Request: fold
Amino acid sequence: MRVPNQAIVIHDRWQPETRFDLDAEPGDFIVRRGDGLIAYQLAVVVDDADQGVTDVVRGVDLFDSTPRQIWLQQLLGLPQPRYAHFPVLLGNDGRKLSKQTGAPELSADTPVENLTRALQAMGMPFPVQPQGHSPESLVVWALEHYEPNTLRGRQSFANKA
Reply:
């Protein structure tokens, strides 16, 4: 897709309002790959519209895909969902925790320990002892005590190097 000299402003529920000049950043992009498959940007826009998605919540590492998707939504006359690009957890080396970066796998056999570790990694105050709690009660506690501005490892697109 050849993009026009057009500004796209992203109003995100988590990140600061950000303006992208399409022709400069992200620039032209592929919508059909050389092997004939539809590329991610177009596929996700059509799929979200088809499913009636109203809110997209994903990691801030995918923030720079959003202006392409908004432009395609406008071009195709599709509704634009609300966006929230959440900070991602980073390892000690500063890289996103994922299987691609070698983060250890979580065991489905230890849900309480997994939730406890996740809450601690996010910097959630943790006054309760996890022993004796069910995964459901920990999630309820986390929702009641959730303070997004205090999350550890906060990463925003605006300060992304």
In short: The beta strands are 7-10, 18-21, 55-59, 82-86.
